[in-house]
């Protein structure tokens, strides 16, 4: 079963149908749980309706969650599939950078033009109404002044007198004028026959000019008040705002719909409040606070379209209407004015003052639009060609990378242009050429590394593996190369059951040359130490601890090997067999277990440190210059007496010379470390010292080989 599941999963992965993201897994889990709950709901609907009903909310929630997650996963999958190719990415980028901004610009322009056209159409109607009200107000004031003059002359005007004062303009034939003087209850009126009389409400105490609602009809009314009560004069002019007047005001503009608010009592649950905001729609018109409006009338007709782009424009505006019969302070209501027109009509009105030049302006605007369309089309064509050139170059690079992936570095891209993409192709060709060379160099490097690994193994065999421990001396050595092979050298060689030779050296330079010279010294020291060479037993100068005198070696105690004579012989051999710039430092010491005496000679190496059981220390600084640089050299010897617990520390410069921000590690720090840990086993002391040196170096590269040799008398 497990194998079948893995095989099924493998096939789905090959086809790219295996879910890869947590969104997809979450969508699948939500869908599975939703289907499970649907099945449970269907099974329990006859047995337990309450349980089935309670699962309805969870089914709805999980269905919605699954749909959202699946939509998100599908979007990510489509984005990954469609945008994998660079061409599709560039197309999408061009759409977002070029097409969408143009689309938004055109859309915003059209919306702006539509709003401007609708506002202009509404303005034409409202401005004409306001102009009528101003004209009525001016004539009203003239009539009021004439009436005041008549009263001042002792005359009492009547209806006929007032009729004679009316302006003899055509529009005044539809207007009614009423005059109240003092506490007069009935006004003197003049106007068209059948005009409905109106009263003078108490709130008209000053000049007034508004659209009013009186007896469910709309009127344009202006009032002029002269003087104060009780001898005030009120002159009110009124004109019915009906279909004929609106058609006259907006002649040829289009279809004008005038709406007035229904009385508040006729709308259940709606308070009698005045709020702004009118929304005009087909069939019904409602304000933002829920107040309903009723169409008063529809005037005019929508003109025919002059072209295919001469679309309809529907726009609305607010009209402030005063309730003439209201006895409350909030008597102002909000009405609505709807305009249904076409751009050609507005254009003709807007540029009517230009006369014949309006046609020239129209041609200019059309030319600009055509030019804009041509520029956009050219941009699309240029963008498509640039996209194709870029994707073609990228496809060539992609195919070339396939050759590189197959380790075919001989493939070259054909360059046919002279642009940055061509430079990139040339760079790729140059890169493959360089890679071919690097592959050859890498092969050579691997060969050298293999040889170095062999050299490292060979050198590791040169260091003592099984150390001969004397009964009275325990020794331990450690070397950590800075590179693959080391130029440092140490050795322990048992001369007999009581004597042990200790050697510590450092070869100039690093790497293979230093390792070869180290092997030479190692072989020479071992060979000269065990061979019966007469020169090693010739008289030498000896500096005896506690006094200085010259003795002959034949007069001294019999010994097998002289460290000084061995250094002299090594110096001559290295001088003859190595280049002039190659040399070594070497410390040689022979420990006699029977007497606990250490006889040593030093050829330019760092002086070893002898730390006594009581913690005091001294340097074994008797010695000469380096080995192999000069010929005909002799080296002095010194013999020191060791006591149980005395610890000899020999080391290379890789221990004391590493630096950080605080300076060198130093000899004093080495002495303190060994002194504080002198009771530990030699291996543990070595670990403490090398760990301290490593911490001192930190993250920096190890600058030199680290070699440490310890010997403790017991």
Plain-language structure description:
By secondary structure, the protein is an alpha+beta fold. It has 4 domains: 22-82; 108-350, no CATH class; 352-462, no CATH class; 463-533 and 562-713, PPM-type phosphatase domain (Phosphatase 2c, domain 1). Helix content is 44%, strand content 21%. It has 14 helices and 24 strands. It has helices spanning 2-14, 22-44, 49-82, 86-152, 159-165, 243-249, 343-350, 357-405, 420-462, 512-530, 563-577, 653-656, 667-676, 682-697; strands at 175-181, 188-190, 208-214, 217-226, 233-240, 255-261, 278-280, 285-287, 293-299, 313-323, 332-341, 473-480, 488-494, 499-507, 542-544, 584-592, 597-603, 609-611, 617-619, 637-641, 647-651, 659-660, 663-664, 706-713. The strands form 5 sheets. The protein has a 9-stranded mixed β-sheet. A hairpin with a 6-residue loop joins strand 1 (175-181) and strand 2. Helix 8 runs parallel beside helix 9 (420-462).
For the sheet with most strands, the description reads: 9 strands, mixed
What number is the mean pLDDT? 81
Which residues sit in consecutive blocks of at least 5 with pLDDT less than 50? 265-290, 539-559
- Which percent range fits the helix content? 40-55%
């Amino acid at each position: 079963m497990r194998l079948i599941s893995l095989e099924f999963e493998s096939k789905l992965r090959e086809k790219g149908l295996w879910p890869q993201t947590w969104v997809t897994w979450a969508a699948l889990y939500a869908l599975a749980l939703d289907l499970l709950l649907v099945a449970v709901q269907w099974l329990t609907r006859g047995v337990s309706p309450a349980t089935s009903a309670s699962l309805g909310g969870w089914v709805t929630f999980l269905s919605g969650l699954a749909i959202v997650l699946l939509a998100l996963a599908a979007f990510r999958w489509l984005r990954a599939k469609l945008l994998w190719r660079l061409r599709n990415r560039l197309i999408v980028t061009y759409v977002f950078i070029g097409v969408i901004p143009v689309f938004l610009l055109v859309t915003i322009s059209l919306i702006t033009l539509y709003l401007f056209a609708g506002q202009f159409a509404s303005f034409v109607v409202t401005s004409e109404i306001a102009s009528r009200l101003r004209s009525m107000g001016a004539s009203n004031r003239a009539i009021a002044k004439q009436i005041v003059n008549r009263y001042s002359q002792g005359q009492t005007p009547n209806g006929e007198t007032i009729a004679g004062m009316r302006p003899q303009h055509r529009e005044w034939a539809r207007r009614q004028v009423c005059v109240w003087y003092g506490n007069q209850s009935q006004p003197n009126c003049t106007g068209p026959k059948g005009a409905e009389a109106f009263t003078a409400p108490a709130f008209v105490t000053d000049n007034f000019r508004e659209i009013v609602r009186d007896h469910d009809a709309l009127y344009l009314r202006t009032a002029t008040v002269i003087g104060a009560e009780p001898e005030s004069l009120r002159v009110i002019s009124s004109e019915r705002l009906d279909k004929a007047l609106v058609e006259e005001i907006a002649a040829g503009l289009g279809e004008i719909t005038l709406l007035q608010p229904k009385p508040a009592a006729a709308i259940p649950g709606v308070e009698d409040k005045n709020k702004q905001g009118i929304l005009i729609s087909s069939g019904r018109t409602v304000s933002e606070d829920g107040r309903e409006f009723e169409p008063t009338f529809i005037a005019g007709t929508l003109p025919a379209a002059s072209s295919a782009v001469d679309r309809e424009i529907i726009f609305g505006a607010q009209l402030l209407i005063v309730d003439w019969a209201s006895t409350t302070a909030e008597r102002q209501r909000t009405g609505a004015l709807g305009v249904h027109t076409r751009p050609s009509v507005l254009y003709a009105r807007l540029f009517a003052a230009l006369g014949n030049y309006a046609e020239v302006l129209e041609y200019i605007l059309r030319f600009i639009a055509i030019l804009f369309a041509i520029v956009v089309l050219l941009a699309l064509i240029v963008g498509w060609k640039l996209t194709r050139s870029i994707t073609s170059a990228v496809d060539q690079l992609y195919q070339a990378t396939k050759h590189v992936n197959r380790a075919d570095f001989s493939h070259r891209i054909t360059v046919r242009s002279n642009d940055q993409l061509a430079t990139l192709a040339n760079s790729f060709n140059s890169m493959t050429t360089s890679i071919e060379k690097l592959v050859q160099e890498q092969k050579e490097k691997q060969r050298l590394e293999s040889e170095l690994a062999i050299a490292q193994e060979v050198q590791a065999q040169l260091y003592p593996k099984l150390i001969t421990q004397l009964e009275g001396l325990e020794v331990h050595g450690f070397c950590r190369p800075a590179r693959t092979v080391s130029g440092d050298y140490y050795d322990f060689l048992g001369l007999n059951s009581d004597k042990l030779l200790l050697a510590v050296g450092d070869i100039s330079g690093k790497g293979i040359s230093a390792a070869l010279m180290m092997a030479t010294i190692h072989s020479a020291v071992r060979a000269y130490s065990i061979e019966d060479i007469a020169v090693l037993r010739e008289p030498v100068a000896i500096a005896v601890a506690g006094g200085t005198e010259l003795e002959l070696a034949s007069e001294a105690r019999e010994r097998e090997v002289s460290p000084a004579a061995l250094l002299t012989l090594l110096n001559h051999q290295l001088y003859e067999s190595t280049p002039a710039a190659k040399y070594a430092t070497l410390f040689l010491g022979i420990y006699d277990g029977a007497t606990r005496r250490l006889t040593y000679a030093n050829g330019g190496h760092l002086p070893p440190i002898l730390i006594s059981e009581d913690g005091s220390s001294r340097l074994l600084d008797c010695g000469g210059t380096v080995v192999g640089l000069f010929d005909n050299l002799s080296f002095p010897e010194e013999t020191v007496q060791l006591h149980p617990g005395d610890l000899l520390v020999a080391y290379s410069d890789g221990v004391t010379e590493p630096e950080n921000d605080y300076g060198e590690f130093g000899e004093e720090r080495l002495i303190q470390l060994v002194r504080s840990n002198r009771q530990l086993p030699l291996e543990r002391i070595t670990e403490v010292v090398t760990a301290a040196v490593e911490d001192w170096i930190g993250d920096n590269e190890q600058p030199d080989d680290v070699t440490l040799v310890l010997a403790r008398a017991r």
